[in-house]
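Example (one chain per record):
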Amino acid sequence: MAFVVQDWHEGENRIHELTGVQGEDNPNAPYLTPRAAHMVQNYSLLALGTHDEEDNIWCTVWGGEPPFAQPLGQSILAVRTKVDASHDPVVQALFKGKDDGQVFRAGDPAPMIGALSIHLEVRGRVKLYGRMMAGALNAPDGQNPVSDRGNSGQVQLVVRIEQSLGNLIAKSKLAVSFTVTGARLVENGLPFRGKLTDDRSQGRSPYNSRIRYLAAEKPDEWAGSKVAGHAVPQVRAKLIGKTTLTPTINRYRFALDDGRAWDPKAGQYVALDFSEELDMGYSHMRDDDPTSLNDDNLRTFTVSSAPRSLGLHGDEFEITVRSVGRVTNWLRWQREGLVEIGVRGFGGDFAFDQSKGKRVAFIAAGIGLTPLLGQLANLDISRLKLFWSLGVRDVGFLDSIIKTYPQLRAQAVLQEWHESGWTIHRRRIQKEDLAAVNSEIDQWYICTTATMRQEIQQWLPDTSFVYENFDY
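Predicted structure:
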């Protein structure tokens, strides 16, 4: 059996240098591999892209009963399916109005075609690149009213495949930004239908990737950090202390090996990279723990200690963490002095602004109290209202806060915390609690789950809230 290895393009090599990827063979095959051919003819979706006469790149989705796409010969792929002949920009770019059903050969140079064959249920995908050889589009007038959804046409497309690539790692650490300059939303324009099921066990896929902000969506908060932009962390943090607060909440203290990587500010979070300890390599599926599939093992935690308050040179920090998944459960079992974690950087600015005499209120749920802990030393407690919702199972966390931060005392309290100065209600936060003090507050801050935050915002629709969005 013969094998052909493609060299990397010079642009690809440059990207590898910027992202810290070591020299590896190009996984692309310069032909339609037998495995790719088998997968394509058994998949029911095909994303297809090409460019029009003005070099605008368009992408569409075709579909049909397999095998609506199948190989005709060595590296030759034929596609036959129904399309929206009136509005599909890829159909228009490839056939340029020729819709009489007659086969025609592509010109020279033939249009470039990129494609992605997809099987949603098994997470299968095959990347294809080639050039159009021939095609035919049959779209008789009057089959459907143009004002409704345009003419439904039957398309036949023959493509010479010049490159194919099978499944790649699902959760990449590199996001590529592109600008959408045009889009067409056509009701009922696709040749297939899909719907979400109400069955919880068969609902949204547990394999959905984690979504992070694009660089253009938020400022580059790590610009001043030496670790920003590197594929491999340049700074490490050593676990030097651990305090168990509840069966699921722990406080961890870390020491940086290079304190210059951190310019501490109030309200920051730290991004830690656990991949060296927990990365299991590529897997196509992992039904025993689907959320861990190809996990990048990057996690962000609020810094719960005051800036420059720990360590001889202020190069230590604390995070208070609830064990909720594979990474945090692993961290929970580590011993002080034996673990070093890669640090991607510090970011965020969830700081309470009490300038010019502002009165602020903070609504927190559970572990969401941590942004306040690192800022208490610089706050005027008399101008702070705190509403904290905490589960009974986390009473140890409450006890630790009462003892560590006595400056929060305000009023009489029930039962065993009567000396603490806290008012405790055994119920959930209600609209009346917030409405009663709303007129006294200049700025509200909130750190809760997305569901609770949205409900609170509905309670006070005319009130502005400051919050860090961790919905992703």
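Caption: DSSP finds nine helices and 18 strands in the chain.
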